[in-house]
Write a structure and sequence with these properties.
alpha/beta; Rossmann fold; two-stranded antiparallel sheet; 11 strands
Length: 250
């Protein structure tokens, strides 16, 4: 029986259909659901095995990128989201979705107080380019749980993915970053930091490892032809491997 995935749509999201396509071609059944259907309790988050908050400009980025969407998550169906996470089900936030999870107090851990944020890029410009990323190993001296490594299982030390954001600069108190590093919660780091992120952070896990927020777009590198160099060299679509890992783990 196919695993069920939900891609949460809100006004302004624009990577939802690519995400649905990536999930379905990776072997799961994906459903595109508007956030209001959860607010009205017409749909239940815990009926799904995988949930994804895609990229875009939800609610026009009013109040800041992802902030308005995060308020829905924080105050309208927070309890159900917490149950979903505590059951070990998979929650992914990409770009705007990462901003939502950070501002809702879901990452780096469930908290009433926001501990991390994604601020305006250091150059005050919208960044749209391909970037190299370091796939971070587990903490030295620790044997990682299976769910801490499944996202990037079988990946090399560095990969390429595209980014497209104006507010992607990861910021957090130094104590929070140190704690995240000690727990193996930094999943990806920029090799060539495009936005001025602290410690070059590009993706963050929760401590349990089943929630991931990332600024790069894996759904935009699901096919080799999406890479600008595909016409003159062989490229491997790491977004496809990423989504297949998710479905396999689920």
């Amino acid at each position: 029986m196919k695993k069920r995935a939900v891609v949460l749509k809100a006004p302004g999201t624009n990577n939802d259909r690519e995400t649905v396509d990536a999930i379905e071609k990776s072997g799961a059944k994906a459903e595109l659901v508007h956030i209001n259907e959860f607010v009205r309790q017409e749909k239940k988050l815990n009926d799904y095995d995988i949930a994804v908050i895609p990229g875009g400009f939800s609610y026009g980025d009013n109040l800041g990128a992802g902030k308005f969407f995060s308020l829905f998550l924080k105050y309208k169906f927070r309890d159900e989201a917490i149950k979903f996470i505590e059951k070990g089900r998979i929650l992914l936030g990409v770009c705007n979705g990462f901003q939502v999870l950070a501002k809702a107090g879901i990452l780096p851990e469930i908290s009433a107080v926001q501990k991390i944020t994604l601020a305006s890029n250091s150059n005050d410009r919208f960044v749209c380019r391909w970037v190299r990323l370091k796939v971070c190993p587990a903490c030295p001296g620790e044997k990682p749980a299976e769910r801490k490594v499944f996202w990037f299982e079988g990946f090399p030390e560095t990969i390429e993915l595209p980014v497209a954001h104006a507010e992607g600069r990861f910021l957090a108190p130094l104590a929070v970053i140190r704690e995240m590093k000690s727990r193996g919660q930094i999943a990806l780091e920029y090799v060539d930091n495009p936005n001025g992120s602290q410690s070059s952070v590009a993706a963050v896990l929760n401590e349990k490892g089943n929630v991931l927020g990332m600024m790069p777009h894996p759904e935009r590198f699901f096919y080799p032809f999406q890479h600008p160099a595909c016409q003159w060299k062989k490229v491997f679509p790491w977004g496809r491997k990423f989504f297949k890992n998710i479905v396999k783990y689920a």
